Here is the input.
Amino acid sequence: MTDLAHNLELVRERIVRAAARAGRDPASVTLIAVSKLFPAEAIREAHALGIRDFGENYIQEFESKAAALADLEGARFHFIGHLQSNKARRAAELFQVIQTIDTPKLARRLNEASKPLDAMVEVKLSPEESKTGVDQAAAAEVIEAVRACPYMWLAGLMTMPPWSDDPEESRPYFQKLREMAGRHGLAALSMGMSHDLEVAIEEGATHVRVGTALFGPRVRP
Ligand SMILES: *Cc1c(COP(=O)(O)O)cnc(C)c1O
Here is the structure.
């Protein structure tokens, strides 16, 4: 068995156990394999193991991989990095899902590509300056802007809590995202990564974004 196959088995077991604890169907949790900084071959191997959802952070990096992956059947690519409006059109062409919409302007730019897209609004739930996403207070405006875009279907909300070694530290953020989604009638919750996916699933995550636990540590360029 390859490392990836073994890692995937472990991650799937974690998802199943967490779902069982929460009384949820594990099939209600979509595993997104975060493949940033890993080559196209890693995505191809993951696809052969049954993964269909992939997360990428950088337009330029994915551009060079996408050409090599055009034949992958049923693959869905989620953009999960920070997206500048001037790259929106290209992002719309390359991805099926954009999870990091954080301004009305970005929503409109994506819509201008005239390509049907699934969308999520990224919410910033901590005051940390470095985090991307829209402030809670301004989230409603972004949600309405996406809903007004005919080419976009708003699935739900995405967040990334401040980093902590202790996954329990993420719980209040996940709870807050779930409450917000409920208030806005949104079903999808993209939350939870390698270190805190169990807590996210307990708090209702429908999409977990897992990189390191599948592909191993990333080497910074
Ligand atoms: C890189 C990244 C992940 C994956 O993080 P891991 O800790 O490697 O699982 C998830 N979400 C976002 C937004 C990321 O940038």
